[in-house]
Design goal:
Helix content is 36%, strand content 33%.
């Protein structure tokens, strides 16, 4: 005898139906997990770009100001790019701010508008931890990680 019997065919169809049913039930959860992981990967990339921008601005800055020395709400780096001994030229004042409402960090150059450089930021702090040598601690809490991310400058 060649081929499958009716019972073998019915068992194969039943097993296939169970597997397809389980996959379709978990598809929504699997889709949410994949979306969450994709968002986290994008956040990590944005975070690294933000750190590179902030480090570059911090190292080039001749001075900076904040609205609150204990916690960063608005930070302005002053960089004399054309060496004319003032900070009034376009692009010589680089500002960062934490937008608590939209849970994001924004950056602007000169008198331009703020542009988002990092999304999903739950908490943000910039504190001076040492005066000699001058050292600042940047702490960022995000929606993807239970522990805050800390960087020293």
């Amino acid at each position: 005898m060649k081929g499958f019997s009716l019972i073998e065919l019915m068992v194969a169809i039943l097993l296939s139906s169970v597997v397809i049913g389980l996959v379709s039930l978990n598809y929504k959860n699997l889709s949410k997990l994949i979306d969450r992981l994709s968002e986290e990967v994008v956040f990590r990339e944005q975070y690294l770009v933000f750190l590179l921008l902030l480090e570059d601005d911090f190292q080039q800055a001749e001075n900076f100001t904040t609205t609150d020395q204990e916690e960063l709400k608005n930070l302005v780096f002053k960089i004399d790019l054309n060496k004319d001994n003032d900070f009034n030229d376009s692009g010589e004042n680089i500002g960062y701010r934490w937008d608590e409402t939209n849970i994001e960090i924004d950056r602007r150059s000169g008198k331009g508008s703020y542009q988002t450089v990092l999304d999903d930021v739950d908490d943000f702090a910039w504190k001076q931890v040492s005066t000699s040598p001058i050292c600042y601690k940047l702490t960022i809490a995000d929606t993807f990680n239970n522990l805050p991310r800390t960087t020293l400058y």
